Amino acid sequence: MSGAHIRVGIGGWTFEPWRDNFYPKGWSQSRELEYASRKMTAIEVNGTYYSAMKPATFAKWRDETPDGFVFSLKANRFATNRRVLAEAGESVERFIGSGLAELGDKLGPVLWQFAPTKRFDPVDFEAFLKLLPSTVQGLPLRHVLDVRHESFMTPEYLTLARRYKMGTVFTDSDDYPSFADVTGDFVYARTMRSQSSLPQGYEPAALDQFAACVRVWAAGDEPDGLPRVEPKPQPVQPRDVFFFFISAAKERNPAAAMALLERL
User: Fold this and answer.
1) Which of 152, 232, 258, 261 stands 20 to 30 A from 89 (CA)?
2) Which residues lie closer than 8 Å to 67 by C-beta, 6 or more apart?
């Protein structure tokens, strides 16, 4: 898996229940990112979906985290929650130009999350993909699409995403379309099934299965047994993998992430 980086993490780092079962007792809230970033290798930031951040904020995150750590940033909702995506140019530019480049090599994929009611319109969706820049201040950008309507489960969508070299989120959930067809040069998975009754959120066998999938993805192949739109292709070169434990029994997700990292 030479050249492939595996990153495992959670959504955000500020969650009150984590102060009872993840952060050490009495740990300063102002140092929670410092702690979380040393227990896992990536964090998906949800706050950027709801509000604009300043360049100084991104620089602060960069400085508080160790080398090799990566942030995935959820793009602002004003770019994706609209009837006509082709009209999102100004919102896309505003988000990309808000200071992301301050993260430097700690900038991971930019996640564009669409509403569950947003259907696949090939013409409008392609117009949106054309708006997404490949760089920001000389820093390469990687985009990943979180499509949440079953109309995207079609070869036409896969072809379009691959044409523009966009990743597609593999969502492990019963609430949203779940298909593992790879469309970019990296894999981005979000699993949403953790359970409060389990100390690590998942049974050991499930964590073992996650680890096996991650290894297969990183090696350039695609795991058997996952839901797909098209038949599994031939293996390619090693690729980066981003694996996040999101929502569900959120209080268990740090333990799940650390358990997966132990297996890897």
Assistant:
1) 152
2) none
20-60 per-position pLDDT tens digit: 899 999 999 999 999 999 999 999 999 999 999 999 999 99
β-bridge pairing 186-191 and 70-74: unpaired
pTM beyond 0.85: the answer is: yes
Strands 107-113 and 135-136, sheet pairing: unpaired
What angle, rounded to 10 degrees, do the helices at 253-263 and 204-218 form?
60
Tell the burial category of 191 from Cβ atoms under 10 Å away from its Cβ (0-12, 13-18, 19+): buried
Question: In degrees to the nearest 10, what's the CA dihedral of 141, 142, 147, 151?
Answer: 100
Residue by residue, DSSP assigns 39-106 as: TSSEEEE-HHHHSPPPHHHHHHHHHHS-TT-EEEEEPPHHHHSSS-GGG-HHHHHHHHTTTGGGGGGG
pLDDT in tens, 12-28: 999 999 998 999 999 99
Distance, in Å, from the CA atom of 25 to the CA atom of 144, rounded to the nearest integer, reads 36
For residues 244-259, give the mean pLDDT: 97
First-to-last C-alpha distance (Å) of the chain: 12
Q: Which helix (H) or strand (E) holds 207?
A: helix 204-218
| Superfamily grouping for domain 6-263 | Protein of unknown function UPF0759 (3.20.20.410)
